[in-house]
């Protein structure tokens, strides 16, 4: 059933091409046709559930850099899935994709998550802000250039410290003394091991003053 | 949001009416002490009824919600990033910590997703073990959900009954996997070990004594006046809304959509077992409770069928030499298997390049794994489609217009787990 839907979709949108897939029928749709193609699948072929919306980062320098992937499921045609993918437009720093919140309100949180993790701007999204990381966090962690060990950022604690006078020390971003190495290397080298032993409960990290500085 | 709410926001209505009167000159502005205003209230992230670290930023008019904005992410650990940096088998323990009330079901969903990518069929015995453990996990997760829900709406004793039964299940899990909570039971291409001797009999004995206790427990609630007052007609989610927001599992079925992947797209041999899919009619908190109660009975039915026709044969994929590490006794006695084990541990299971999306019907809803592989032992991208995340996204719509005490009922009936929502 899904394969027929994909054939019909390709007839309606001639620019759509087949996408390699290990399971469900999949199709690549150009950026401009995404909303129309998804509406076609939802209304004409009863793919009424947007199960998942996510993105893939093809690493720095790749063209296209980001691909947004939609998975649809039909509740009336027992268990048929389709996968629709589209490459993002815009620059690497600020990729864009069309929002499908008008089709499925449930896409709201999925798109917010994609924005949070990859920095993809969904055009037409009513309320595009971070969802898993806190507001004001400067990075997009699921991008390939972001290291697994994390990047230390100022936590939004300045006001707490100011008000309560408590000593606020940020926990290490790298999850204790066991640090995984980022980048392309074999697994033996990348394996988490005790590399950064400077941090401990009692001792202060050498590169930090004992009391975290309050910003003015 | 494209959605518009109509709700009894009396403060806003009164203020608007007052403004109109003042502007038309019919009345003078009321003194400040007579003017009402809305209150904003933050519930959570550590509040007993938010079951973990959900935070609800609410706007209240008296006791009635006029706005609800869920704040999630307090338990975000970056599981998807972690997955890109380790081999497929190393990620199994992380799946325990998604829906930590049903780790065995998560283990199974993840293993099947990777196996689909490798085009690997596991033997019938392995499939039966996985179905058995997933259904036991469903019972234990629903018991916890039921107990916590009842506790939230004021019925203490249900939790005591359900925790006792859950404890018995955890004893069985411990005997099978070595751990009560974080089981990490599956491997790509099989499970860590075969079922112990006599274990199936003990599971069967559990089922026999469990059903009467389940009836007794449900009878404490099903016709309980207080419980019904707090759940019937509260938090109604229509069929269309449930589909639009991507609700799954008992929450979707409570709204009258009979989607159950175990029936609609069977995996791991679910097509051999007979069971019914309970479906609600109204989509309120009470319907969601009834659906969960019935699902436990159906799970017992499935468990009995699995035990009755428990297949023999190997319990892991014997033909997958580059994916499944052989059992320890073989590694210690044969050179070839020692090398095989070494390669799988150091390089990871060798999975071909491709994209795969697999979903399993978990206790909380449909758990999906989207895996992009470029070949080798590490996924290039792994996305977890978590049911709790999607189920919670309907909160801004369903909470508005309810009393603040009803929000507690709604949260309890949605039965979410933040470990899975935040990943």
Helix and strand sequence of chain B? HEEEHHHHHEEHHHHHHHHEEEHHHH
User: Would you tell me the overall average pLDDT of chain A?
Assistant: 79
CATH class of the largest domain in chain B: Mainly Alpha
Q: Classify the oligomer.
A: heterodimer
Largest interface summary? A-B, 47 and 57 residues
* Terminal CA distance of chain B: 25 Å
Tally the structural domains of chain A: 2
Major β-sheet profile of chain B: 3 strands, antiparallel
Structural class designation of chain B = mainly alpha
Structural domain count of chain B: 2
Keywords:
heterodimer, A: 216 residues, alpha+beta, Beta Polymerase, domain 2, 2 domains, five-stranded mixed beta sheet, three-stranded mixed beta sheet, 10 strands, elongated, disordered C terminus, B: 423 residues, mainly alpha, Cytochrome-c3 Hydrogenase, chain B, three-stranded antiparallel beta sheet, disordered N terminus
Commentary on this structure:
The complex is a heterodimer of chains A (216) and B (423). Chain A has 216 residues and is of the alpha+beta class. Chain A folds into two domains: 2-123, 2-Layer Sandwich (Beta Polymerase, domain 2), CATH 3.30.460.80; 147-216, no CATH class. In chain A, 21% of the residues lie in helices and 20% in strands. Chain A has five helices and ten strands; from the N terminus they run H-E-E-H-E-E-E-E-E-H-E-H-E-H-E. Chain A has helices at 2-12, 34-44, 107-118, 158-164, 187-190; strands spanning 17-18, 26-28, 49-57, 66-74, 80-87, 89-90, 95-98, 121-123, 178-179, 193-194. Chain A has a five-stranded mixed β-sheet. In chain A, strand 4 (66-74) and strand 5 form a beta hairpin. Chain B has 423 residues and is mainly α. Chain B folds into two domains: 1-37, no CATH class; 79-422, Cytochrome-c3 Hydrogenase, chain B, CATH 1.10.645.10. Chain B is built from 18 helices and eight strands. Chain B has helices at residues 10-24, 79-83, 92-96, 103-118, 124-152, 156-177, 199-222, 225-231, 239-244, 250-254, 261-264, 285-308, 328-331, 335-347, 387-392, 395-399, 404-414, 418-422, and strands spanning 39-43, 55-61, 64-71, 186-187, 190-191, 354-362, 365-373, 381-385. A three-stranded antiparallel β-sheet of chain B has the order 1-2-3. A three-stranded antiparallel β-sheet of chain B has the order 6-7-8. In chain B, a hairpin with a 7-residue loop joins strand 7 and strand 8. In chain B, helix 7 (199-222) packs antiparallel against helix 12 (285-308) and helix 12 runs parallel beside helix 17 (404-414). Chain B is elongated. The chains are: A alpha+beta (216), B mainly alpha (423). At the A-B interface, strand 3, strand 4, helix 3 and helix 5 of A face helix 2, helix 11, strand 6, strand 7 and strand 8 of B.
């Amino acid at each position: 059933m899904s394969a027929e839907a994909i054939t019909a979709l390709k007839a309606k949108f001639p620019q759509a091409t087949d996408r390699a897939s290990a399971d469900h029928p999949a199709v690549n749709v150009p950026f401009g046709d995404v909303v129309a193609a998804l509406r076609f699948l939802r209304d004409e072929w009863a793919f009424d559930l947007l199960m998942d919306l996510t993105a893939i980062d093809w690493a720095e320098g790749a063209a296209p850099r980001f691909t947004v992937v939609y998975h649809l499921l039909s509740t009336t045609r027992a268990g048929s899935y389709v996968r629709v993918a589209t490459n993002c437009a815009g620059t690497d720093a600020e990729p864009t994709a069309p929002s499908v919140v008008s089709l499925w309100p449930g896409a709201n949180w999925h798109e917010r998550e994609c924005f949070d993790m990859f920095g993809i701007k969904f055009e037409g999204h009513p309320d595009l802000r971070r969802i898993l990381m806190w507001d004001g966090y400067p990075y997009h962690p699921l991008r390939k250039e972001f290291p697994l060990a994390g990047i230390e950022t100022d936590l939004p604690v300045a006001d707490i410290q100011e008000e309560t006078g408590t000593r606020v020390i940020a926990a290490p971003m790298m999850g204790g003394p066991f640090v995984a190495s980022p980048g392309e290397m074999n697994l033996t080298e990348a394996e988490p091991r005790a590399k950064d032993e400077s941090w401990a409960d009692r001792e202060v990290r050498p590169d930090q003053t004992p009391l975290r500085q309050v910003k003015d | 949001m494209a959605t518009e709410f109509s709700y009894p926001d009396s403060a806003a209505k009164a203020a608007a009416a007052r403004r109109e009167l003042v502007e038309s000159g019919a009345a003078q502005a009321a003194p400040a002490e007579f003017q009402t205003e809305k209150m904003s209230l933050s519930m959570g992230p550590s509040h007993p009824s938010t079951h973990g670290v959900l935070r609800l930023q609410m706007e209240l008019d008296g006791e009635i919600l006029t706005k609800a904005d869920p704040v999630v992410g307090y338990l975000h650990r970056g599981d998807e990033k972690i997955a890109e940096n380790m081999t497929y088998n190393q990620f199994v323990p992380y799946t325990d910590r998604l829906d930590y009330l049903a780790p065995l079901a998560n283990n199974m969903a993840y293993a099947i997703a990777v196996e689909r990518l490798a085009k690997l069929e596991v033997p019938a015995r392995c499939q039966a073990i996985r179905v058995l453990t997933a259904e036991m996990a469903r019972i234990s997760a629903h018991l916890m959900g039921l107990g916590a829900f009842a506790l939230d709406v004021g019925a203490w004793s249900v939790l005591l009954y359900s925790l006792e039964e859950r404890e018995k299940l955890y004893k069985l899990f411990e005997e099978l996997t070595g751990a009560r909570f974080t089981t990490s039971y599956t491997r790509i291409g099989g499970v860590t070990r075969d079922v112990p001797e006599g274990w199936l009999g003990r599971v069967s004995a559990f089922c026999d004594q469990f059903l009467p206790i389940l009836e007794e427990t449900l009878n404490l609630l099903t016709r309980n006046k207080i419980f019904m007052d707090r759940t019937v007609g509260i938090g109604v989610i229509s069929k269309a809304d449930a589909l639009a927001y991507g609700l799954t599992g008992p929450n979707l079925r409570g709204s009258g959509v009979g989607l159950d992947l175990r029936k609609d797209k069977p995996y791991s041999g679910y097509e051999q077992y007979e069971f019914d899919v309970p479906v609600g009619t109204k989509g309120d908190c009470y319907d969601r409770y009834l659906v969960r109660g019935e699902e436990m009975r159906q799970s017992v039915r499935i468990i009995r069928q699995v035990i009755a026709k428990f297949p023999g044969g190997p319990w892991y994929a014997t033909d997958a030499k580059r994916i499944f590490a052989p059992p320890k006794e073989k590694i210690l006695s044969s050179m070839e298997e020692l090398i095989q084990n070494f390669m799988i541990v150091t390089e990871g299971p060798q999975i071909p390049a491709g994209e795969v999306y697999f979903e399993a019907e978990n206790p909380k809803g449909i758990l999906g794994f989207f895996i992009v592989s470029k070949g080798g032992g590490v996924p290039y991208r792994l996305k977890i489609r978590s049911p709790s995340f999607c189920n919670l996204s309907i909160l801004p719509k369903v909470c508005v217009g309810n009393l603040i005490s009803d929000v507690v009922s709604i949260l309890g009936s949605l039965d979410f787990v933040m470990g899975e929502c935040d990943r």
